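Pipeline run #58 for the internal structure catalog. This entry was flagged by the ingest filter as a single-chain record with no existing model, so it goes straight to prediction. Upstream metadata was stripped on purpose; only the residue string is passed forward. Reviewer on rotation: M.T. Logging verbosity set to normal.
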Amino acid sequence: MERSLRNVLVVSCGFLLLFTAYTGLQNLQSSLYSEHGLGVATLSSLYGAVVLSSMFLPPILIKSGGCKWTIVGSMCCYVAFSLGNFHASWYTLIPTSILLGLGAAPLWSAQCTYLTMVGQAHARRAGRPSPDVVNQYFGIFFLIVQSSGVWGNLISSLVFGQTPRQEAVPEEQLMSCGANDCLMATVVTNSTQRPSEQLIYTLLGIYTGSGILAILLVALFLEPIEDSKQKSDGEPESISESFSSTLLSTFRLFKDKRLCLLILLPLYSGLQQGFLSGEYTRSYVTCALGIQFVGYAMICFSGAASLCSLLYGKISRYTGRAVLYTLGAATHLSCITAFLLWRPHLAQMAIFFLLSGLWGVADAVWQTQNNALYGILFEKKKEAAFANYRLGEALGFVIAFGYSTLLCVRIKLYILMAVLSLAMLAYGIVEYMESRASCKDLAAGGTGQVEEEEMQTEM
């Protein structure tokens, strides 16, 4: 097996094991810990910490420890969160969620930087266009990682499926499900009761073991990689100098108009993921079907996102980015409209799985194309660019979970629709700017070639 592909598979399998645990756990937070809003508060704290971490930690950790050990250290933070769930309370979930948030931005920034560098190195050796190889590697990565939602949610569904069958949800509760959910319903039925403590501990034990295996896999088998420009650096900076310089580099990148316009893409990515894991699992699935069906609904999302990630990575060289972004936007706008009009009911069970699957088809666009786009447009400042990407995505999560207990689901869907429309408009402007820049470069190159031919003719 080719060396670079082997490393891509190692890091992908490590993330698969890690997010098999985290994805399943995140999707259950708002349903398991709904009392006093603990679950939503946990997720808000988590992504609030991601915002702070994105500002300065990724460049510092990647430069000091390298991509490999940044990934390993960050994975430990995820395992700590799983351990915190064994005794769920405000004193355990909030601190461990903050710790996870601090590790999340360096984890994803290191992964994006690693795949971009491996892809570019392989492209130089093979004589292939760098964007094609980078897109292919991100497609392979997200094919494997997105499937973590399948396994994580399957595990939770099988474990929680051992609870006794629950009675039908009364019609008065169904009236407050879906877009009509304004968190004002006080009716509590068997569909919203917690599983037994024994089943919860069994699930947490499986998730914790999966996270530990992820750490061991990456630590033992992933080969470290260095950026060529780092090898030529002189004396290493002190910690204070590194902190200030990397913090400035993260925000200095906002001088680039393209980044200012593109920040809406990760913001929407965070908002839509927050809606799915926070509102859809609680206000649609748990409200109408019961918590034992959350995993099965999310399996459809993860399976569709995983398969489409590989597909998009392969066809992007033929279709271009714009076509895929248009597909993703059209699919999500259609789903949002359906969420607004649909009244969830047990008799319409197929719709729960169909809509989550379509949501995954579009999510695969944001996951693969956003990361590849940032890596290609900001090639010389990858660490700062990916840190800004995680900052924007984390802000989306914080906003989504922050207003989770304040707004009706219908209002949240309108917000998603508005942000998506603005994000696509801003993205179109960036593509137009890039096409104009390419035309100017071609024109300049052509002029230079003509002048050189004229000089040779005169000689």
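catalog note: The radius of gyration is 23 Å.
catalog note: Confidence is low (pLDDT under 50) at residues 184-192, 228-242, 455-459.
status: ready for reviewer M.T.
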